[in-house]
Amino acid sequence: MTRVAGLDIGSTATKCVLMEDGRVVASAVVSSMPDMRVAAERALLECGASGVPVLTTGYGRALYEARLAQVSEITALAAGVGFVAPDAATVVDIGGQDSKVVRVEAGKVVDFAMNDRCAAGTGRFLEVMSRVLHVPFDEFDAVAADEVEPLPVTSTCTVFAESEVVGLLSARQPASRILKGVLVSVCGRVASLGRQVGLKAPIVATGGTMHSRAVVRALSNALGLPVAVPPSPQLVTATGAALLCARRVESGAIV
Amino acid sequence: MIKLRANKRLQSTIRNQVLWTRFGARIGRPIAWVTSGSPVEIVLAAGFIPFYPENHAAICAARGMSQDLAEQTEAEGYSRDLCSYFRVDVGSQISGRTPLGHLVPPDVILVSNNICGTVQNWFRVTAERFNVPLLFLDTPFNDAAPTESDVAYVREQLVHIAAEVTRLGGRRVTEDRLGKVVLRSRDALELWAEVLAMAAERPAPFTSFDAFVHMAPIVSMRGTRRCISYYRKLRDEVRERAKAGISSVPDERARVVWDNIAIWPVHKQLKKLFEQYHVSLVSDTYTSAWTVEHLEPEDPFTSLAKVYTDIILNHGAEHRVKVISSMVRKFDAAGFVLHSNRSCKRYSLGQFGVKTAVSTATGATGVVIEADMADPRSVSFEHLEQRLVPFFETLGATG
Questions:
Q1: CATH number for region B6-173
Q2: Contacting residues of A for B391, CB less than 8 Å apart
Q3: ipTM above 0.90, yes or no
Q4: pLDDT tens digit string along A176-222?
Q5: What is the nearest CA distance from B389 to chain A, expressed in angstroms?
Q6: A255 pLDDT exceeds 60?
Q7: Going from the N-terminus, what domains does chain A have, and what CATH number goes with each?
Q8: Side by side, which strands form the sheet with A90-94?
Q9: CB of B394 within 8 Å of any CB in chain A?
């Protein structure tokens, strides 16, 4: 019996997936703050993955010292998508600190583009706006999923967009239209990123933000193509890390 | 990993060049400040000693002085969006600070727009500061090779420039004298081309990270005997390494090609990252810009006109696609890195299109990284790593 774990230490959340003979048997999501090292230990503990070979990925991947190996989140994401949605040709991932579009083939990266320079077009932008609007993430759907008249939020800079939203609120514009405008703005940026590598269907969307139907709908509109979301969109990268870990263990590369 | 013996020689060669410039000025030899794409052979034939502000800016950047110097220029009102080499060099002129001790002021300035439009203004500002004559060579931009009328137009200007440098204190530039300098340039350029071509061996005995630093003499000393002797020794050493199977990176696992100028503020870190992932940077469009063909000592003016108009930066994006694609094939590279250089607009224009076109033509994987050749405020190693590591992994190279 091969037991392995994939640990995705992201900027916002740390995700862990435990695999046993090619099946996911446990998973955990914990906040990365305030200490990514502690978050990593906690996520492993919650999965019952202590003492199991671990492959790490994500921004904090080098922080977990007992790792078997580490890979970039692009490589792990592609491997994970190859497992949860083998037919996918393009993956769009909106993470806490960046957004990326990866062209994939059988779990391998063909090409990728990422925005890691600017908060606009990332989960961080949504987080800031959610705070200003007093609409927590789990209420996004109730507020904005069916809104059809988004208000334009045009500032690229997150800080200026925040004051734009404050301005809209003080002009007594409804939160639903502003939030929808925010989603259109983020997804529009991700779509232009996608055009750099070419958007090939079928498209799969991943990352914690995809738990929201409103986000998925706005993304699909921006891309002009249908978007499929796997059952646990936040865990795809960690799943990929676990798979790559299993491959290394089985090939006897290390351990 | 065995280091190049030439690394030490490079330092002393550059030091000697600086000393020679200073000594020459003291004994009354006239000094010409020139762009990297100037027909330096003409000023050499006239007995001038050339100095290269671009090269100087790169040295300042590699020594960690560039931000400070750039800020001096910005304080005079120049935008941070302008070329960082310009800001660094002018900052050095303003403050008098340079890693070379002190700068030897120019007697004449020679500039050509074959590499960009910025140098035209940069060198004009410099000429005004030192109150010296400015000689300008206009090289028509062309999609591919220069036409006959382009060559005739440029040749005529070269003849004028030769007459001007003579009038401004130089020796008379005869075809014979110029031919001798052109021959020396050609010998050095051929040796440099030989060195770069050897990176096609597996494993690569010499990479572009080596070339980025060992290019200094071909840029700033071509046309001299010392330049030839430098590259003859380098060629022999690299040949030895190729024969002995000495690799520039440990256990080479992937080979990639580079487009654009080096990223001096993180040059060493980047080199280390490539080594850590066992990736050889086998060729690049930057250092190979000094591997021109068709230099003919028998007809120096015409061949100089051809060569200095036929420069990669003086051509369109389609030409660049051809150059990069042929490098990918010749050096058997699985990928290519396009450095989108904030400072060099002409070099960076159209890179996303170039990436798609080269991938389609060769099947190689490309990545665009954003940085700056000299301004550390526009370079984030963290972000470069974010892009390059997944790119390396895609090529099958792991750390």
A1: 3.40.50.11890
A2: 112
A3: no
A4: 999 999 999 999 999 999 998 889 999 999 999 999 999 999 999 99
A5: 6
A6: no
A7: 1-85+235-255 (3.30.420.40), 87-229 (3.30.420.40)
A8: A108-115, A99-105, A90-94, A203-206, A227-228
A9: yes
